[in-house]
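Batch manifest, entry 17 of 40.
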Amino acid sequence: MYYILKYLLFLLLLFYFISSSFSQKDTINTNRLKIFISGNIVFYAGTGIVLNNLWYKQYSSNNFHFFDDSNEWLQVDKCGHFYTSYYLSKVLNNGFKWIGLSVNKSALYGSLLGVFYISSIELFDGYSEHWGASISDIGANILGSSLFLTQQLLWKEQRITPKFSFHTTSYTSVRPDLLGDSFGEQLLKDYNGQTYWLSFNIKSLWQLNKFPAWLNLAIGYGATGMVGGRDNNNAEIPVESNLDFTRKRQYYISLDLDLNKIKTKSKFLKIVFSFVNIIKFPLPTVEFSGDDINFYPFYF
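Output type: structure tokens
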């Protein structure tokens, strides 16, 4: 709990720094500002308490230390940090615009706060005897927020969007304790079934006026054959298993849909489209894995 209070104090100082930079040119809605700050504090403190009770409380605390996990899970977990940091920055950017900040300030402060959120929670690991703070995780967080910030400052729109897709795998039957037993656990823990994408809006990037604004080109990354972080040596692999336990990287190229480019006057549909747009649509996909090339009519 001490660490939560310490980071909460830093969050308050960060909000003070941000608020002190507001100028007369910023048309700040003070009521919305109070709601925004209060909501962020409650969300951050609540998230920290839940993580502490469900995760960190089970393990002994230690002096702050680092842990190098850069070579684990063939870096699929780093893609998760990149993806999460990007969308935290995007949500917080929208919050700053909602209270009345300019486009540039909203993007800057949203990205700054996004990195703080995910990296400070990640740094809880640094005080856990079981783990340690990961520089590579923090680096992935910074890259995710930077992708959002760079595009917002350069184009005032997001032309390259991170996306996520997932399918269940049979590897969970080998190590359900590590890869998850239920679907919800597997969604978070089974890196064999996770694919992370960068979805490129063709019309916006290449200025093709007659090209459909909602059709994207997506490049994906995933991995398979993993029943351990660094290797599979500690896993009790069944002798008669039909699974391939060769750890391999997987690269994908596919089509995708950008629902944010679909024109509608409905605010409800805009919200739905924005939420669903974080997921890669299951469309025709080509996979490159080692010497193998596979085609899927619909890949998810």
